[in-house]
# Entry
Amino acid sequence: MNNFIYENKTKVYFGKGGVREYLGCLLKNYSTIMLAYGGGSIKKNGIYDEIIGILNSEGKTVVEFSGIMPNPTYKKVLEGTKIARENNVEYILAVGGGSVIDCCKIVSAQAKIDEDIWENITKKKKFPTEFVPMGAVVTASGTGSEMNAGAVITNETEKIKCGLFGAQADFAFLDPMYTMSVPFEQVISGAFDTLSHAMETYFGKPSENNLSDDINEAVMRSVIKNMRVLLTERENYDARSELMWASSMAENGILKIGKITDFQAHQIEHQLGAYTDCNHGKGLAVIHPVLYRHIYKDGLEKFTRFAENVWGINDKNSDEETALAGISALESFIKEVGLPTKFSEMGIPESTDFKAIADSTNITAGCCKKLTHEEILEILKECV
# Structure
């Protein structure tokens, strides 16, 4: 296992009723709160009324920042920054899924500096050190954004969707009841994003047996099992609670301890999203099996283990046959849960500029194999 330093500052309040019991106390030292959320679903499901009631009862000045989109843009970040500065916001409360939380992470950082944070991070490799403090109330799980400092933001001008470094939430409320009103398609898409995070980490280096990967296998099996439960019992609280915690586990750093990961499928999907504004989880569902058939020979031992320990394939075939059976099991599962296996099922036309997407995809070291831009283009074309 590689050397590592591990710390996670986010305090998690998991389960029913946590917001009502603890939120007021956690914000007692702050007067002006930015309440950030997305398209307004929290006003329909009662979550907004619950939270605004708590803030009002505690005498807080509430500044609203709404309309955060599923793929948050840098323009939206700057809008939130302007609101935060003009109102002297002391604390940011992000209520929603990963998109809302990600946007707020960068608002938190940009509000503290005069320079352009996009330029600082992507061009100058200068990372923020000061932040407006923030907390999160998770209403749609899948990204695990509530327990890390990473944020995925789309720069529409540059047609780049990439990860930036921002604030990390001081606290996160994970109440599975809040996910009950989320459209089921979004629940499944988010859960697959969790599985994707786990897989991307699992196929990182080292490939030799290690505790992080042992834990990861359990997380992946749990996600698969509980997604299947929801297919027939959509409001099963236990399944939703397991998926909600799995989402955090996949991105709170535990699975990455001692690992080097590059998130190749995510890098490709991010650029697909920059050009098409597609659903993140669905894009990943299409890309993963195709990508894995391109690289499995370079990580044969790990793909064999994935097939055996995650999908239960133990038919004593050759390693290559077992590895391919594991990838086929993943693809079959994607179909089983109703996610797409082709871009055409997502409404992404064959005429899309896949070359521009491939050429703009960040190429990293490669979990098993470093992909060229030409290979990424092949993968994208095979996904159509």
About this structure: The chain is about 50% helix and 10% strand.
